[in-house]
Write a structure and sequence with these properties.
Layout: E1 16-19, E2 23-24, E3 29-30, E4 35-41, E5 45-49, E6 60-64, E7 69-73
Antiparallel strand pairs: 1-4, 1-7, 2-3, 4-5, 5-6
The protein binds zinc ion.
Zinc ion (ZN) binds next to loops.
């Protein structure tokens, strides 16, 4: 069941997302299908990826466009104001 994406980018903050494309930050490249949390918005989303299962490295990527992400869990069960 697909989760409807919030219209306002600020409403994505705190949500868990899956990447639809590979993305990189200059140090690491995360493959499509990686899971991350949206930690902020400034000229795109700031993402923090789940710690790597083998080395527990945490990767952060910024300026990610919403169309490159799929929401897998909204920030909470509360309804986003004005979104329905
Ligand atoms: Zn690793």
């Amino acid at each position: 069941m697909a989760i409807k994406s919030p219209k306002r980018m600020a409403d994505w903050v705190g949500s868990r997302v899956k990447t639809l494309y590979a993305m990189e930050n200059g140090y690491a490249k995360m493959p499509a299908g990686s899971v991350a949390v949206v930690t902020g918005v400034s000229r795109g989303f700031n993402l923090e990826f789940a710690p790597c299962s083998c080395c527990s490295m945490t990767v952060k990527v910024s300026r990610v466009r919403p169309e490159h992400l799929e929401i897998i869990e909204l920030k909470s069960a509360e309804r986003v104001e004005g979104d329905r």
